[in-house]
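Hello K.,

You asked for the raw outputs rather than the summary table, so here they are, unedited. I folded two proteins back to back in the same session to keep the settings identical. This is the first:
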Amino acid sequence: MKEESTVERSSSLGSTIATIGSILIAVGFAWLIADNWNVFPDILKVLILLLITASALIGGVLFRTHDYYKIGSSLIVLGSLLFTLTIFLIAQIYNLSTGLQGNAWLILICWIGVALIAYSLDSSSSLIIAMSEFLIWIMLQHIAFAETSRNSSIFGPMALSYLLVGVIFYGLSLLHKSQNHKFHKVYMWWTLFYITIYTFIFTFLRLIPSIWPSGITMSSSALIFLIVLFIFALISFLSGVIASLSSGKTTIKEIIVFMGTIVLLLIMILSSSIVSSQVGTCYAKNCYDFDTKASCLVSNAGYDGRGCLWEQNQCAEKNCYSLKSESTCTSAQIEDQICKWQNNFCTTVSCNSFSTKDECLLNSKANCFWQLTSQNGDLGYCDQNYSRNIRVETPNSDEKYQTCSKLSNQRNSCLSKDICGWRGGELGYGYYGQTTSIPFSLWALWIFSNIIFIILILAIIAYGTMNGSQKIVNLGILFFTIDLISRYIGFWIDYYRSSIAILSIIGGILLIVGGWLIEKWRKNLIEKVHQNENR
């Protein structure tokens, strides 16, 4: 036995050294290729990329067939990553990627290709890469939809899509479990991790209003995408449920708990549109908020009190820099400013540009005055009297901003003020950066999302305990701990002005006691897991 163990260690050491040597050779060749990449013709670049990817995959298969499973698996993962890199580099060589939609098509090809590698070469790690790229593809596709339809919501349709993705993952886990395929553990753990992360994101108060900033609206492309994704989710879920129930690999109770979680998350996502209609920032209007000439010319919304002007079918601040043509620039009648057309740009005449006393005093409109440099004679220079530039708006600028900012998160009250504008889809802040009154509907939805998250964590821990999975139990404990810490940090951010010392002491005590209780709870759960494994 000792001789065999010695041989195994030698073999393992030898394979490790050989692997390091192979990596060094690969790095050396990669360095040589990178240094001369621009010299190679395009077709040779493509062949090199394909050859390196194929070599990694073939090498991985050969290592695994000769009982070097870990080395072989690592090479297959490397091949999967190189496949993704190859797709994007080939697109770059031939200029195939155009904009966000082009990148979305490329990542679609990548995750499909990596998924085929995972199943054909039986690689769990490659499957995880494929699922990660699938999630990236969902995000890129929605961003591409938003780019072509600027007035539609992006986070709402994206949230619904990612919820359907969770259903797809769960259906695939049930389907693989019914066939005793080893990938079912990957899908199950990934589903639990994914749904937990998904729910945790929605427990943040500031995120909820941004889901549907303009109500439940989406572009036609996003709607079609959701319908197609829903069909795939339905097929995956039904086929998985039917196969797992017929094989006795799962229980109706587990399926009901999962679907209940999905339904609660769906209610939360759709209900956020009610909150979004009332939550937002109320701000003092400026000239650029007016889209008609009549409303622009009567407005006193200018930052400096001069008002607004209508220039090239746009409302702008009333100053020289807003004038776009030479004729309007030279004929402009703007109080306390003299406009000058210079280098195809309208600018103000500076008092420093006048070299004589007479020129300076003739331009009193720009608040110019002659500053003497000696007591005798008229020697001096032309300067600007900045004290005369202090203007008083109607209403006062500071008063106007404070009036509007106090109405943040109160949409109807904000829009009732002519001087105020509304920007929805975000948690509004007051004039000094403090959060103003938050609607009860937002608090209620936030509490609802946190209750869902706690229920989900308890369900994950119970599931892991019943199935004898220590990894799943640890996953539930991990997110329970993260939730406690994040809530404490949020409380600190909101109320740190009260007393940093008291909050530090209370937080320290809670963390010590909480850590002890969590560790004790985890040990009891692990004991139950081992008991279930021994049955």
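The second followed immediately with the same parameters:
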Amino acid sequence: MKRCRSSVSTTKNMSVLVAVSMALMVIVGAQEIGGPIPPADIPTQCNSIEKCCMPTPYTGKPIYQFEFESHLPVRTRPAAHLVDADYVAKIEKAYTILRGLPDNDPRSLLNQMNLHCLYCDNALYWPGVEYPLAVHNSWLFLPWHRMFMYFHERILQGVLNDTSFALPYWAWDNAMDVTPVPNAMPAMYANRESSLWDPNRNNCSLPPFLTDLDTIGGCTTKTPDFIRIQNDRVLYTQIVVGSPTTSLFYGMPYRFGDFGGAGQGTFEDQPHGTVHFWVGNQSAEPPLIPYDDMGHFHRSAFDPIFYAHHGNVDRIWHLWQCLPGGIRTAPHDPDFLNSAFTFYDQDGNLVKANISQFLDIEPLRYNFQDLPTPWVTNGVAAGEENSIGLCNPLSKTAVESLIDATPKHKKSDVISAAPLTFKVCRGTRKTDGTEVLEFSGLHLPDLTQQVHWKLYLFFPGANLTNSNPTCPEFTGTFNFLPVVGQAILNPKRVWRVAIGPKLKQLGYDYVDSIVVTIVQSSDPIQNVTFDEAEIIYDRSPEVTLD
């Protein structure tokens, strides 16, 4: 497949970045709040109310620094729906072994689940630091999960004694009408007699149902033809039009000691999070909670399909770097590049690795099997991306009248069962950077419940009945997944959507103000407020956004 590299992660620059990272790790004891994340002592720095700490005492070799494993064969991660019987037998054997490993073995499937929980569910603390690490809702999300997948794959290779083995990816981004359908859950994960089976799944996520990339879980009445159109437009909006910059795609900066993620990237939010909601069992019974296993951070990595799902997340991240338009590169900030995490290798030994080492897949010795990506051109022929008719077509006069009649946002405005419409002044237009609408001061009343809404431009009549992501006016989505241990929301957390590219797509780039409509689809509905909605210009990665 085509090679796309992050501009900061070429092999030429790698030795310098790793040297800087290793120097920082030597002085980690004196680490000041606000710098890169130091590698954790994961057996001991755990304070988890979910009991997802790693086995103690640690009995492996002394922790070592990861280096590129040039001796490994280059392996191609296959599309899961296309693998043959020999591959299925091999991966089933690997997960049978992982399920059978003792609880004190960090390679076991239980402990792979715990390791994900440790980093993702507010369980990892440093001495003297008030807040736990959180790799979600920030620029840590993509690299941490690539690293986790890499070492998980090495563990599978170890138990199989086969360094050529590669994890599969579940191509839920491709719902083309072919057999087998790439988007549907691959058959090997739906075999109830297999080690790849997980009983805690949404029945409607099983084949032959198509994966719905616009859902809050449970079943759907949408037709396959509708889902195909919808999914392509969701992906086009979120990944192509909605994330042409580093900050929009990766998420907001997260530095050592920060209080939670300050804002997720568009891709982390949807479709990544949506697939988790879709697969998790909304009717899970105690001691589980609704949407276990895949629908919550603490148990999602116990379902083997988690790794196929994140295989596709990793693949789409790789593809994003090749998309036209925008500045599609990793953050240049040294706090990002020099952040480090601790994992277990194929022998159960601790290994520390730096983000700078995992921004280019070529030195990691893997690539992906090629598949079509119709969403890259909005599900239509190249060059026709913006030819889709609007759900609320307006003349220029009607646009001007709508702007005049729409009130500005007030702090007292509430996103509830009724759609909320307001206008935002674009201010002085700038030629550098991407125009972004930023929401700050978010207030979610009940952090134990999911929260979901969509934003539309120049569609004040949008509601749950007459609008959806197939409408070109759909501009972005916000999805909140409850996190155990998160008592309050990070007060600095923001939500951002790219306005400039969408206005050009709609033909409304001439306007002085935008008309925004937010439609909440949570169950139950919450009364959500935010302090401010303003236009900013995203110049990342040249300028770090805080």
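Confidence is low (pLDDT under 50) at residues 9-29.

Happy to rerun anything if the numbers look odd on your end.

Regards,
P.
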